[in-house]
Amino acid sequence: MNFTEFNLNSELMEGIAAMGYEKPSPIQELAIPLALKGFDLIACAQTGTGKTAAFLLPLLHQIMLNKKHDSNIHALIIAPTRELAIQIDRQLEGFAYFTGVSSIAVYGGGSGNDFEIEKKAIKTGAQVIIATPGRLLSHINLGYVDFSKLNFLVMDEADRMLDMGFMPDIQRIIRQLPDKKQTLMFSATMPSEIRALAKKILHNHQEINLAVSKPAENVLQAAYIVYDSQKIALIESLITDRDLPLVLIFSATKSGVKEIESALKKRKMNVQAIHSDLEQDQREQVLNNFRNRKIQILVATDIVSRGIDVDNISLVINYNVPGDAEDYVHRVGRTARAEKTGLAITFINEKEMGKFHRIEEFIQDTVRKLPLPAELGDGPSKDQHHDRSHSKSRNFRPKGKNNFRRPSTPKA
Ligand code: AMP
Q1: What does DSSP say about strands 247-250 and 206-209: parallel, antiparallel, or unpaired?
Q2: What confidence score (pLDDT) does residue 357 get?
Q3: Between 274 and 404, whose confidence is greater?
Q4: How far is the CA of 307 from the centre of ligand 1 (A)?
Q5: Ligand 1 geometric centre to CA of 23 (Å)
Q6: 106: which strand partners?
Q7: Would the CB of 333 count as within 6 Å of ligand 1?
Q8: What is the 110 CA–ligand 1 centroid distance (Å)?
Q9: 24 CA closest ligand 1 atom index
Q10: Phi first, then psi: what are they for 52, rounded to 5°?
Q11: Within 10 A of 324 (CB to CB), how many other CB atoms are there?
């Protein structure tokens, strides 16, 4: 299938071409035609599948179709985090470049000046608002947000918003919107609360379900059974002398993130951390440094595990086994975006074997356990852990001193 088959507005097609998109991804193939027909949608799709374009393209097409170069708010996109809001706005700017459609990303954490800029844009002409719930409510409460002409609502990562406790805010926002509008909901998982919300706010909707519980096929997964005290040395051994331009390390806690950053810095590695203690502009700076490859290694808490669009992450390391299987899938999904191959490695300590086994059951796969590099000494005993022999780690055979083979596809 080709993008031309959607019969999208010609200026929008120019934007798609300029963004370098050639073929729609599966979620785009499914969602775009239904959205263009005007259906409400609930789509189960994980980050990395191309879900952003799946809602942005129909939304922009509809605004163009109505030749609405006015200053009314036509579409609202609600997203759980400022990082995701910024990322959606960036994609929108790319697609909308030739269309003249205007947008503003509205998110907390910035300066007072940022609030004034948002206020001005909301009052004088942003046709699409991409917002985190709390910040949008602050503007709504001040009385100048006019949603009377709104005809498109998108909720991105709805399950994430539920986890973050945003549902009451979202209900409050939805009450401000006209009844007659098209609503698209995207969620990586479908807990009962999300189904209930969908039932309440969607009309005559269509449902799209892409398998969510497995990492993308092109992620090579592996794991080490390792004591906490060996982990920093293991990272060094995995990364040093290898062509891995962008490495993302997840740690369970903020303090863990800071400790890893300082331990790797001591080993002269090019690393920065991102966590919620940083001011908004510092967080953006760190992400930009990573994106622009000024830093090789980003250490992060969960705030960046979903939705952050950094291309070509060569290696994702789970410093701890993630709390649940969905988080594992999301974290691993930071690599191998859009048909590239990526590598994801999880460190399992002696207490986490059962937890990791549950993740393997969830993804219905056995992740290959690699032997530790000899210089690290022995790790925890493997007897306790449930290894099954039918690993399907394609192209991922033990090799060299670390038994580590980097994927061939990511470009330097
Ligand atoms: P998303 O799941 O929306 O976060 O998209 C994941 C990544 O894939 C982003 O870098 C997108 O720009 C990219 N992408 C999405 N759809 C396509 C497509 N049809 N062709 C090429 N790249 C795409």
Answers
A1: unpaired
A2: 87
A3: 274
A4: 11
A5: 10
A6: 131
A7: no
A8: 27
A9: 19
A10: -60, -50
A11: 14
Structure-derived torsion over alpha carbons of residues 84, 90, 91, 97, reported in degrees to the nearest 10: 160
- Residue 46 CB–ligand 1 contact under 6 Å: no
Q: Is the Cβ–Cβ distance between 412 and 390 less than 8 Å?
A: no
Q: Mean of the pLDDT values across residues 156-180?
A: 93
Looking at the chain, the domain(s) classified CATH 3.40.50.300 span 3-209, 219-384
Q: Is 47 in the pocket of ligand 1 (CB under 6 A)?
A: yes
Is the model more confident about 17 or about 1?
17
Cα–Cα distance between 328 and 213 in angstroms, integer?
10
Q: Name the architecture of domain 3-209.
A: 3-Layer(aba) Sandwich (3.40)
pLDDT over 90 for what percent of the chain? 60
8 A C-beta contact, residue 281 and residue 82? no
233 versus 220: the higher-pLDDT residue is: 233
| Residue 131 pLDDT > 80 | yes
Distances (CA, A) of 172 to 15, 112, 165, 166, 295: 34, 24, 13, 10, 41
Pocket residue to mutate for ligand 1, from 13, 44, 52, most atoms within 8 A of Cβ: 52
Which of 8, 337, 411 has most ligand 1 atoms within 8 Å of CB, for mutation?
337
- Ligand 1 atom with the smallest distance to the CA of 3 is 19
Tens digits of residue pLDDT in 356-380: 987 887 787 899 999 999 999 999 9
With a 6 Å cutoff on the Cβ, whether 87 touches ligand 1 is no
The pLDDT tens digits of the residues spanning 307-338 come to 466 767 889 999 999 877 777 887 887 776 65
Nearest CA to ligand 1 atom 6: 48
- Given pLDDT bands bounded at 50, 70 and 90, which one contains residue 412? very low
For 174-225, the DSSP string reads HHTS-SS-EEEEEESS--HHHHHHHHHH-SS-EEEE---SS--TTEEEEEEE
Question: Hey, whose CA ends up nearest to atom 14 of ligand 1?
Answer: 50
Residue 306's pLDDT band (boundaries 50, 70, 90)? low
**Is the domain covering 219-384 a CATH 3.40.50.300 domain?**
yes
